[in-house]
Design goal:
Elements: E1 3-7, H1 15-31, E2 34-41, H2 44-48, H3 60-69, E3 74-79, H4 82-85, H5 89-99, E4 102-108, H6 121-131, E5 134-138, E6 142-143, E7 146-147, H7 150-158, H8 162-169, E8 173-178, H9 185-188, E9 194-196, E10 208-216, E11 219-230, E12 235-244, E13 255-265, H10 273-293, E14 312-313
């Protein structure tokens, strides 16, 4: 099989990444090729920056879930290590060609590769001429005079500017995980929560109470979300706790997506659980007002119209 492929980390799979992937699929159809996406695990920054690596917008599991939604013919996951990082640009490309029959390679404008990031899109075009494949370089995507980038979205998430982050991602900033059984404190005061541990390398916005959505069985459910510790319950461990409004099912051990839509307030310490209950009741009232005005838009990530066809994972 001959492929037109794109390569990158694709952290967040934001609108810029999506424009590249759309180009790959469109060109594959026009030229009777198969589409492919080449990525790395772990992220190169985890090897190259070590303890200074950025937190991820999307974990490996989240990326794989989203990639499957994009209906790409082949996903090639290359283990990234120091040996791979030390390859020259030429050897790096030859390694790629040994793994997949590339007819054309599509990259972003700032793509770098090879030892010390010494290769760029110009280097790749030169190697393409030598080794017999076409190279397409996609220009940056602009949003309100700013380039759409993973680093910009990280800055927005770190500031809880989730509405703008959502626009650059093309979908709400979300967390994938399995629901665990908690201590039952929320249930005792009338507000049972779905509790989720946070993956260590996942970028999480500041601690606080958020309005959001829980995505389960093709449903998007309104939720009040506590992100962080629970000082009133004397719990220092940071968790994601979602109280799903007007929902009674037990979600223990179920895998769900949680979307964070809007920062509501900081986490407070209350003198009693009675006071905490009153605050949660007020929070839920504010959440209902928010969701009554909320316009979800056409988020492709949750659309049931899109194909769930699984790509070949290698």
């Amino acid at each position: 099989m001959k492929y037109i492929a794109t390569i990158g980390t694709f952290d967040g799979i934001h609108l810029g990444h999506q424009s590249i992937i759309d180009f790959v699929k469109k060109t594959a159809s026009e030229k009777n090729l198969h589409s492919a996406l080449i990525t790395f695990e772990p992220y190169p920054s985890n090897i190259l920056k070590k303890n200074q690596a950025d937190k991820r917008l999307t974990t490996h599991s989240e990326r794989m879930w989203i990639f499957r939604k994009l209906d790409i013919n082949k996903i090639l996951i290359i283990p990234f290590d120091k040996e791979l990082a030390s390859k020259s640009p030429s050897d790096f490309v030859k390694m790629l060609l040994s793994k997949i029959n590339i007819e054309a390679l599509v990259v972003g404008y700032n793509f770098c590769f090879g030892e010390k990031r010494s290769g760029n899109s110009v280097t790749l075009q030169q190697l393409g001429e030598m080794l017999g494949f076409d190279v397409y370089v996609i220009p940056p995507l602009d949003f309100h005079n700013h380039i759409v980038s993973s680093s910009r979205i990280r800055n927005l998430v770190n500031k809880a500017s989730l509405d703008i982050a959502c626009k650059l991602l093309g979908y709400p900033y979300s967390i994938l995980g399995s629901i665990q059984e908690g201590h039952g404190r929320g249930r005792e005061i009338g507000f049972p929560t779905a509790n989720m541990n946070i993956t260590e390398n996942k970028l999480i916005p500041p601690d606080g109470v958020y309005f959001g959505k829980v995505h389960y069985k093709n449903k998007s459910l309104n939720a009040l979300i506590n992100l962080g510790a629970a000082p009133t319950a004397k719990r220092e461990q940071k968790l994601l706790e979602a109280f799903i409004i007007d929902f009674k099912e037990n979600l223990y051990d179920k895998e769900i997506w949680v979307s964070l839509l809007k920062f509501h307030r900081e986490i407070d310490t209350f003198s009693s659980f009675s006071d905490l209950k009153k605050q949660i009741e007020s929070d839920i009232l504010q959440a209902r007002i928010y969701f009554n005005k909320f316009t979800p838009g056409d988020s492709w990530l949750w659309s049931e119209k899109l194909s769930f066809k699984k790509s070949a994972l290698h």
